[in-house]
Amino acid sequence: MTSDLQFLPTDPQFLLNPYPWLAKMRREAPVFYDKEQQCWMVFRYEDVKRVLSEWKTFSSIVPKPPEQKDFTQSMVNTDPPKHQSLRALVQKVFTPNRVEALAPRINELTHELLAQMKQHKQVDLLQAFSIPLPITVIAEMLGVPLERREDFKRWSDGVAGFNQTAIKEMGDYFRELLKERREHPGNDLISDLIAAYEDGEKLTGQEVVDFCILLLSAGNETTTNLITNTIWCLHEYPDEYQRLRNDLSLLPSAIEEALRYYSPLVFTKRYTQVETQIGDQTIPAGQFVWVWLASANRDEHQFENADRFIIDREPNEHFAFSNGIHFCLGAPLSRLEAKIALKALLSEFPNLRVDSTEPLKPAPNLLVHGLESLSVLL
Predict the structure, then answer these.
(1) For the chain, how many structural domains are there in total?
(2) 108-115 contacts at long range (C-beta below 8 A, 24 or more positions apart)
(3) What 3-state class would DSSP assign to 33?
(4) pLDDT tens-digit profile of 23-65?
């Protein structure tokens, strides 16, 4: 591997800004074999789209799952027909109406957090707002006690970092909860998942556990980073921030642009079922492929001024929530939370600005793009 194409997954500067490297890879090595990671990497928009849409060639099933079984039956790790039956069952309970019905509660939680923030001149936006909001929403949906919030955050960070201990702890927790709900069903998502049927099929206990792990980790990480990253984008583009302040109806498109510009999920993985060709590279069967969503979302052949944050960008067909059959089931919830949270935040604190004296530290995780903290002046 030549030094100028060096992949630096643990360098904080790389984690904070991988985009110059991604642009270089799109130009010079759009389909690339990384010897250290032992995988192929795909960077261009059209190639990423193809990998995400051709599940028969690019499987989501982890070929050698880790010793522990948790998270191997998750929707993100299955192919059709298994994937369709799982998704159909989960969609019966995780409906658009159920998501929309959460709006008043999200609004209420948002204003409780803003009231606490008002007592300060300066806060860490993540600790005060972006972390507690989505984690509380998901916890209430699942019917899990909020006093475990710190565990949930630790576990979901662990899942994003492929930490097997965190995944096992989370699985054990949900197994206990599942046992409890089977004996005493409640008015919550877990009880509904246990009861759900589709064509005579039910979810197994492991499938329910894996969906809970997925919802708690993905639903929490994505929205936390989406809220924070939007403020980060606005800080970097003061003119766009001013436009948004003058017209909050631009917020939905600003959120879409933040999803594209600083995608919360950086890449996803697939596994080749058969030999295939991408660009001028032949990829054998049985190979891991890293699909760089963050690179596709900055592809200059797809997006004009791809490296600029433009709040009313149209069209904006980004892959922040993936694409194809694995398009994120939680996307409507994430968008709803971000819309309510950011509208209230910017209305409550019209002079909110990022403290430029504090250096930005990336979340220490290659899979998700976000910050460890973001100090804001209110």
Answers:
(1) 1
(2) 109/133, 109/136, 109/137, 110/340, 110/341, 110/344, 110/345, 111/344, 114/344, 114/345, 114/348, 114/349
(3) strand
(4) 999 999 999 999 999 999 999 999 999 999 999 999 999 787 6
For 6, 25, 38, 236, the CA distances from 32, given in Å and listed in that order, are: 11, 8, 11, 31
Give the model confidence (pLDDT) of 332-351 as tens digits: 999 999 999 999 999 999 99
For the record, the structure tokens of 342 come out as: 């950011």
Containing structural domain, residue 369: 3-377
| Token pair recorded at residue 349 | 């604190």
201 has a pLDDT exceeding 90: no
CA dist 326 and 346 (Å) reads: 33
Q: Which residue type is seen at 324?
A: G
pTM: 0.95
| Token duo for residue 309 | 């944050």
Pairing of strands 288-291, 39-42: parallel
State mean pLDDT over 175-192.
94
The enclosing domain of 118 has a CATH number of: 1.10.630.10
